[in-house]
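Suppose a colleague, Dr. K., hands you the sequence of a protein chain of 818 amino acids and asks what its three-dimensional shape might be. Before reaching for any lab equipment, you can write down a predicted structure in token form. Begin with the sequence itself:
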Amino acid sequence: MANYTPETGYAEALKRIEAYRRKEQGSLDLSGLALTTLPPEIGQLTALSMLSLSYNQLITLPPEIGQLTMLTNLDLHSNRFTTLPPEIGKLTALTMLDLRINRLTTLPPEIGKLTALTKLDLESNQLIMLPLVVGQLMALKTLDLRFNQLTTLPPVIGQLTVLATLYLSYNKVTSLPPEIGKLTALTMLDLRTNQLTTLPPEIGQLKMLTTLHLDDNQLSMLPPEIGQLKALTTLHLDDNQLSTLPPEIGQFKALTTLRLDDNQLSTLPPEIEQLTALTTLFLHENVRLGLPVEVLGPTWQEVAGQSAKPKPPREILASYFRIVGEAGEALGECKLIVVGRGQAGKTSLIKRLNGKPYDPKEAETHGITIQKLEFDGQRGRVTARVWDFGGQVVLHSMHEFFLTARSLYLLVLGERDDMLERDAAYWLQLIRSYAGKAPVVVALNKSAGRQRHFDKETLERTYGPILGWVATECSELDAGKGGITELRQTLTAALDSDHMESARRKFPKKWRAIKASLETMTESFLDYNVYAARCLALGEANPQEQTALAGDLHDLGVALNYGRDPRLRDTTVLRPDWLANGIYAVLRANDLDDKLPPALNVPLAPNGIITAESLARIHEKAQAWTMLRAEDYPADKRDFLLRLMDLFHLSYPLDDEGREQLVPTLLPLNPPSGTDEPDDTNRVRLRYEFQVVPAPLIPWFIARTFSLIPQRMHWRRGAILVYGNARARVWTTQDERYVFVTVAGEPSDRDELVTMIRGTMRDLFAGYRGLQVTEQHEYENEWVPRTTLEKFGRLEPDPSAELDELGGDSEEGGEAES
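The predicted structure, expressed as tokens, is then:
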């Protein structure tokens, strides 16, 4: 499109008017000419049927506009009109008038003469009221009044009896006139983002309505007459002040989408279960309903972004009605997950919190232990199920599958001041990636009464909520002096806070006995038919309810069940420590320890490959470590463990049956020979800079790209990839700040391999919420952010890059540097 000035645009308009006058065509496009005035010659085009004047700078129209009596379509959007001339009323043939994005504060009375109008678009103006003559536009089918300053509608609105679509969102409407009920042809009514406090009973007369948007208003109740809208398929009531719903809501037999998130609902009427056509239900941010996020499923934002599917409404409602009223009681339980590096003193700290003495010879935690701690707060007693993870770096890749949102986290940092901030950032990033905004308490262990100086404010701003920083010293006999008393008080206050409402969630009374039975089961696992029989014996005979309970217990961490995952299709009910320690044993198969018998003090998977058969010896080694009992892992469960490791991206199957798997974290630490960095002159070098590289990142990258890795050309911190005539080295270093990528070879294959590596990295980064990572490229022997190179034309931008997925400091781009 040419760049016009008002003068050149005016001249161009005259040319087009003259050209039209000679040819007598049906439409004329004068849009985008920077016009400040319209040539009066426009009035000569008496046969004109369509006129576009959009994207100009017009503030008025000449009187000659009234001579266009054959005009049916007039497009005036994106101008500067503050008023319209009275001659507009002479355009009685108009069926469409587009006045979007102008500065209109009023409409002239002559607008009422446009009785043939079927569509009137007034979006994004400054109208404070509609003239009464609008009631004369009785042919209107679409009226768009979005983004104005309207506070009410005139009663004459009821005369628009053929109106099918009415947009009123983003105004200041406080009430609707009763005459709204006369718009019986309406199929769509958009009233979102107004100031409505009530709806008139006449709303129920809109029997043809299929879509009703009432979100972001101030409604505290709905009239019972709303139940008469039996044609509704979509109803948005989110961001209001509703505390209850009328039972008439059950009459929406055609309703497929119902949004009730961000209200003040404390109860749901039983009739809501009669909405049999419902496929999408959002009830998030209604804290008093007592429904945890696992029950509610993905938010509407996640669903709208196509990153998740909505939770089936029948499952959400079934969960609610199991706990409503006398059917449920406060659970008073939570998961307290203790994380930190090895030797930080996590196990000693838990023992001191439990009133046990400090043992200076405390053995290293080899896997995971689960025990209970009781906390008596102002809001009642809470039993915390404490999960104590081993701190070895090789185990960090397992944390994703146990770090959950409905948990309180205790991060234990060790005595090394030079590692304090870095360790804090590493673990807080891990928690935020896997558990969202779950609250954290930080114990600065082994402080021995000294001050620990570091930037708490930045960590809190970046990784909050952090509910406390407590200096502790387990070797101090006095619990007060050692910070143990303060730590217990801080944890208790955290459990009392709004961050841990989940600790007071309701649980169905009828399931209490089953939960207690599974919580104390001595068996490592139950086949599903045994579990179902136990449910039946303890009062739950409904197979659907038994499945739902298995899911609830999985979310609580009482007993794990993967029946809902289509990749496993295994309904076994597992004890959590059985699963965690069974896989942890695999991840430590190559570790050495002089306390082990000589026959077991050897690497059991030196090439990183495990099989169902090798698991027997691996678990024997773990038993010698007192991590588990080998007899608890029979042959018929080994394939299941392998499938789980594949599912968790901890391993990669090397055969079609998945009986032989590569575990990247078991690979040798040092690179094998022949894996040096390519040094071709036309090579491409890039790197990703992190605060701390997430421990699972490179193992996951190896598992994802295994088909491109030549035999044995991988190690724990990197790999060689080959594609066509191109070769790449991808690796990280011990300082844990960078992932490096160097690619060389035939240019087209090289560029394609760079694109594949960057795409895989982008997918992996997306799994970490809020990850701070910057992509840099080597340019003239300097590392330069990719976005800088794109900005100055040194690299082509990548249109598919999603910056937000990679965190605030991410740099994404396109093709390889050439």
